[in-house]
Amino acid sequence: MKKNTYHSKSFCVLPWLHRFTNIEGQIQVCCSSEEYDNNIRDNSGGKMTAPSANNNEEIMNSNFMKNLRIQMIQGEWPTICQRCKITEEIGGVSRRQSENQHFQEDVSHLISSTQQDGTIPVNIRSVDFRLGNLCNLACRMCSPRSSSRWARERDTQELIKTITSPPNLETSDLGKWFQTKEIFTEFGKVIPTLKHLHFAGGEPLIIPEMPRFLDRCIKRGYAKNITLTYNTNLTRIPNELKKLWPYFKEVKLWASIDGFGKINDFIRFGSNWSLINKNLMDLDRNHLKYGVSEVQIQCTVQIYNIFRLNELYEYLAESFTFITPLPQLIELHFPDYFRIQALPENLKTEARDIMKLILIKSETRLNNGKIHQKYLHLLDSLKGTIEFLNLEDYSVRIPTFIERTEILDKVRGQNFRSLVPELESLYEPN
Description:
Order of helices and strands: HEEHHHHHEEHHEHEHEHEHEHEHHHH
Number of helices: 17
Shape: globular
Largest sheet: 8 strands, mixed
Strand order of the largest sheet: 2-1-3-5-6-7-9-10
Structural class: alpha/beta
Distance between the termini: 45 Å
Radius of gyration: 21 Å
Strand content: 5-15%
């Protein structure tokens, strides 16, 4: 992937052509900046929320969005874009760069059609919907906000008392925004210009309403123009979706898998590695039948899995002919006590050595032709993670990491210390 920049060092196509609605129906700039206050605000300063705020003209040409676009054109990094800025500074490939690459043919027109005050002709090409928090997993780094399974545990876990989260979305109207008539009506208006439709959750593949959006695209005759993408834990692939996907231009599955075998099941509580492996094998064999053009593992790098990354790299490199042979590493930023930067320096050194060995092995496979050159950017992802490890020191958060880990281990009947003995020293008194 080319690390192109367009017009300015901070220019990103998303504020020109993208609509993102989060789990609670809040309309935001993009999912990569949810850790910041990236809520799009109306001209009175109020947060725009679906379904009441659903007019694309008002959203995209709000003062908030006009000012954001002016910042980007002038080469300024908005505060909400810090994750992309950090990713690029450490040599990784940011969301900004990926989106600019995907929509590179639109960039010149987007810039030239922008008025001096930031106003644009509204033409939505990309939609990202987070259809509530229905999920079958309760990942360690997650919360009741993003997972209904986490929400079911909230009354039994002392840990939940320390987590600030919105109301239980299973009973909140905020979690039902996507079921309204207004959403489907407005979605119907953007289908003719849509190039990219993305779903996450929760777990999007099990959310009952998601296929309705696909069916609308198919019946209108525009599915053939749309790239369909998902963030999914890949524990379930309903047969209904395997029948709908071939109508689309292409389907890309970005599988949230944080390790090989037991470590993934530990982090992503409720998952079953044998089922995930079975689904990966199915996709590897039948991707053409299902209309799937890409399956890429996206691994959230954190203290729990930093010493087990090699197993995931070996699994991907040796097991498949179609599935991307290298994972996309995504550094965990929040909760900060799970960051790899929280490790003490001696363990950072060990983790750095492990990642450097992975890099050497992967580069050898690339040079020997066992891995295609088109995946070179995923080695940049690995290099970026090594740099991220060195970037800041969060070691003061280790006591909180231990506290949270031991509480969850007790409640869930798990044992992190036996699973990753390399980190036993974290528990030793100073």
